[in-house]
Write a structure and sequence with these properties.
This protein is an all-alpha fold. It has one domain (2-415). The chain has 18 helices and three strands. The chain has helices at residues 2-7, 14-19, 22-45, 67-85, 89-102, 105-108, 112-136, 140-156, 165-168, 177-202, 208-228, 236-254, 267-285, 291-300, 302-318, 330-336, 341-361, 364-384, and strands at 48-50, 63-64, 406-407. A three-stranded antiparallel β-sheet has the order 2-1-3. α3 (22-45) packs parallel to α12 (236-254), α10 (177-202) packs antiparallel against α13 and α13 runs antiparallel to α14 (291-300). It starts with a helix and ends in a 9-residue tail after the last strand.
Length: 416
């Protein structure tokens, strides 16, 4: 009855919503498609490459980094296009100027222009932190500090500022605004760090992280279009759709150079940027104050979550740092059993479809039961298959998972 009643309130069709923003995805796709080979050329010239080894890096030849710069270029191009043609552009720009000149900072938190600028600035920061790690191999603590700084920019930009309400509102708890802000800030910080590291860990096979995240972006897009069709949150609705279009276009523009055998890797600059996008979308889905959309977003992102959880459990059981690298990730173990990257695309697609359908068709309580049942079944299956056991076939090395970038300036560096 809830779905039937709501159907009479529907204001826009999916075609109308997508047709108004197709240029965002096209701009992002073309920019990434053009920029990626340029950065690949620069990487090979500067010898910013990832050389194969016998353990964590099974690729056949030295491969360029800086693919993350190509993805970021596409994302920025798409979001800039959206910024120029976003609905009520002139009104939001004027409201931003008025709020800044009058010191009315509270009003900025719900301003789409302010939100978008914060997302773009934070995305650039997270990409630069990853790029620094690609080139200089910085310590995990410094990476986390960069991720926290990017999360802080999101909060200042009004993204995730009140996200805790998605948990308190459904059970009728009304917290003081200061407590809502504090708890939301803590949740946003944890969310950004978690998703950035989850996608970073997933970047272990050619085309894996990019392809899976492209599917995740499309799953988020489906949710965003559905929410925008009701027209209940002007500004936020369009922003979610535009962000998904830009990221999907950027990834698809990068993927032709990253599918096996990859000629360029995205590196931490790319994988952390993709994780940050996921965190941003989850925070934006909390804007509704309805738990069903956050749960759906989490399930769409299920594959990286499962892989990261397995890595943490495995390393804790082995008695080593959770930042240590090994070759027993979910994708490693399935590939060793004869699977291919295409299987992960299928799993990611199935997860996204299930999440979108259940979120739209079922009440939250029923969808939650199905999610929990599938979660327990998945973990039981992984435990039976021995995928939670510490790695036996390879020693645990260092704190990095896939790569240790070497900028080869002279032959003596090859021994590093």
């Amino acid at each position: 009855m809830e779905i039937i009643a709501a159907s009479f309130l529907q204001k826009y069709s999916a075609i109308e919503i997508l047709s108004s923003q197709w240029g965002v995805g096209i701009a992002a796709f073309i920019a990434a498609l053009v920029a990626t080979p340029i950065f690949r050329f620069i990487a090979y010239k500067a010898k910013i490459v990832d050389r194969p080894d016998d353990l964590l890096k099974p690729h056949k030849r030295p491969t360029a980094y800086l693919g993350g710069l190509g993805i970021c270029t596409g994302l920025m191009a798409g979001l800039t296009t959206y910024l120029c043609f976003m609905p009520e552009n002139s009104i939001d720009w004027q409201a931003t100027r008025d709020a800044l000149s009058n010191g009315q900072f509270d009003s900025l938190l719900k301003n789409p222009v302010w939100n978008l600028f914060a997302i773009m600035l934070a995305s650039l920061l997270i990409m630069l932190v990853g790029l620094l790690d690609d080139i200089k191999d910085i310590k995990p603590k410094k990476k986390v500090l960069g991720q926290l700084a990017a999360a802080a920019i999101l909060l200042i930009g009004g993204v995730g500022t009140y996200m805790v309400r998605v948990l308190t509102a459904p059970i009728g708890i009304h917290l003081p605004i200061w407590l809502v802000v504090i708890l939301s800030a803590m949740g946003c910080l944890v969310l950004v760090v978690s998703t950035c590291n989850a996608t970073n860990l997933l970047d272990g096979l050619d085309g894996l992280c990019g392809g899976v995240t492209a599917i995740i972006s499309l799953g988020f897009l489906a949710l965003a279009v559905w929410l925008a069709s009701w027209g209940r949150f002007p500004g936020t609705d369009e922003l979610r759709v535009g962000l998904c279009m830009a990221m999907a276009g950027a990834i698809l523009g990068f993927l032709p150079y990253n599918i096996p055998p990859a000629s360029i890797f995205m590196g931490d600059a790319g994988s952390m940027l993709l994780g940050f996008f996921v965190a941003t979308m989850m925070a934006l889905f909390c804007q509704e104050g309805n738990l069903r959309w956050l749960l759906a977003a989490i399930v769409i992102f299920a594959l990286p979550i499962i892989d990261t959880s397995l890595a943490v459990v495995r390393r804790l059981r082995a008695g080593v740092s959770i930042f240590s690298g090994d070759r027993s990730h979910l994708y490693d173990q399935l590939v060793d059993r004869g699977m291919t990257v295409k299987l992960f695309y299928v799993l990611a697609f199935a997860s996204a479809c299930m999440a979108v359908i259940l979120a739209i068709e079922l009440r939250t309580r029923y969808a939650l039961i199905i999610y929990a049942t599938l979660f327990l079944f998945t973990w039981t299956l992984l435990w039976i298959l021995g995928m939670t056991n510490p790695s036996q076939k390879s020693s645990v090395v260092g704190h990095r998972d896939r790569k240790a970038v070497t900028i080869h300036k002279k032959p003596a560096d090859d021994a590093a």
